[in-house]
Amino acid sequence: MNSTLLLCAVCAFTAGPVQAELLYAVDGTGQTVYQLDTTTAVATPLASLSGVFGSVGGLEMAPDGFLYAITTGSASRLFRIDPGSWTATDVGPTAPNFVFEGGLAVSSTGDAWLSNAGSASTPEIFTVDLATGGGAFVGIVSGGSHDLNGLACRSDGMLIGLDRVTNSLLVIDPVTAAATTLTSLSGTVGANGGLVLNGATGWFVTATSSASIPGNGSLYQFDAFTGAVTPLGPVSGLPGSGFTGLARELAGVNATAYCFGDGSGTPCPCGNDASAPTGCLHSGGVGAALAAGGSSAASADDLLVLASGMTPGQPALLFAGLNATASGVGTQFGDGLRCAGGSVVRLGVRVGDASGAATWGPGLGVAGGWSAGDVRRMQAWYRDPSNSPCGSAFNLSSGLEVTFD
Q1: Which of 17, 209, 282, 306 has its CA 20 to 30 A from that of 73?
Q2: Contacts of residue 47, Cβ cutoff 8 Å, sequence gap at least 6
Q3: Residue 167: per-residue pLDDT
Q4: 168 and 185 in contact (C-beta within 8 Å)?
Q5: Three-state DSSP class for 327?
Q6: CB-based contact 70:102 (threshold 8 Å)
Q7: How far apart are CA 287 and CA 308, in angstroms?
């Protein structure tokens, strides 16, 4: 189906049975960005989008803070969109030869999938590499014909799809493409649509009455686990045949790096100062640093902590404390600096990959015990068993201070 419009949610989620949201929408052919208010279901022009060529079939926000869009047709491509400037970069061709209507889902760890390749009788799911656009065939969505107008990742790792053919929400296994019905819908989906999830809460839109297969042109909120659906009303102010994708903008992370082993504070233990704002140098001649992804919204519990520059192939422990050690400049410890302390909790052990990188989260809130308004200082301790500069066989990253919303 031809795509005409895509949306992304950009506001914080509120409590209550119906959650008030602001959504961004963009006309895939006219390349105009709209804002959609879920309390009124009115779309108004907001900005211009540049750099996307082709009709957009799916949109999603990734943990790196960029929106990603796939185009439809026989030359489907992946685009990276800066939500600050609404400019797009062509990442590359997607793996399928042909994509119709479609959806794009990105997990909190950056894994991605697209639909639909093939045809409605054999709808195919592919993985997507957000760095290249390429991917691999996953499988044909089970249960007969389907036309997925939207796709998103549920918090348990399953995919949720908005299906035109069965007029329902589907739960899809991202490994096998096996599908089951979450709930049948009373409103008509039609040719176009889109879907977005935030934890257990989701939203979807249906095609307008002028679409090639008419829908009822409405916005809905739903529970991604029970399938309970709440109508939010018909959408007004839309050009063309309706929306073709939904994505929420990550709320962002209120986080600051601190406590560097670069000579700006406490010297490293044996002259192993780094030349960059990282931890002290390890045996590989570099230091480790922490960064944050996802969001600092305590209720969403989607914080990601990303370590880089550690010793490849060695275990690393992420821990959090209430205090910044020595007023934030750290104290000498092992081959590095201790930056966090006070009621320390362990957030898990990972093994550094070939580049010395590792990721913790989402779901750190239970172990961390934080809530909105809390501040935590985080750091990674990692092994350095061969030729560590100071002979301690371990080192630490720089620190990361996170303020939870």
Answers
A1: 209
A2: 32, 33, 86
A3: 98
A4: yes
A5: helix
A6: yes
A7: 8
Taking the chain (405 residues) in runs of 10, the rounded mean pLDDT of each run is: 39 42 63 69 73 83 82 90 82 90 86 93 95 95 95 92 97 97 95 82 87 90 93 81 63 81 96 92 94 81 86 97 96 98 96 88 93 96 97 96 93
Q: Which of 141, 129, 151, 128 is nearest to 176 (CA)?
A: 141
CA dihedral sign of residues 213, 217, 219, 222: negative
What ranges in 97-234 are assigned the alpha helix state H? none
Burial of 239 (0-12, 13-18, 19+ CB in 10 A): middle
pLDDT of residue 15: 27
Distance CA 154, CA 224 (A): 7
DSSP codes joined into one string, 112-145: EEEEEEEETTEEEEEEE-TTTS---EEEEPSSS-
The answer to whether the Cα torsion of 363, 258, 266, 394 is positive or negative is positive
**How high is the pLDDT of residue 303?**
86
Residue pair 114/71 in contact (Cβ under 8 Å)? The answer is no
| pTM higher than the cut 0.70 | no
**Can you give the pLDDT at residue 14?**
33
Q: Is residue 277 reached through a cis peptide bond, with omega within 30 degrees of 0 on the bond before it?
A: no
Question: Residue 114's beta-bridge partner residues?
Answer: 104, 126
A 10 A CB-CB count for 14 gives 10
Q: pLDDT at position 4, please?
A: 35
What radius of gyration do the chain's Cα atoms show?
23
> What structural domains and CATH numbers belong to the chain?
5-234 (2.120.10.80), 255-403 (2.60.40.10)
Report in angstroms the alpha-carbon separations of 352 from 79, 322, 329, 349, 381: 29, 26, 25, 10, 11
Q: What pLDDT is recorded for position 11?
A: 35
The CA distance from 345 to 335, in Å, is 21
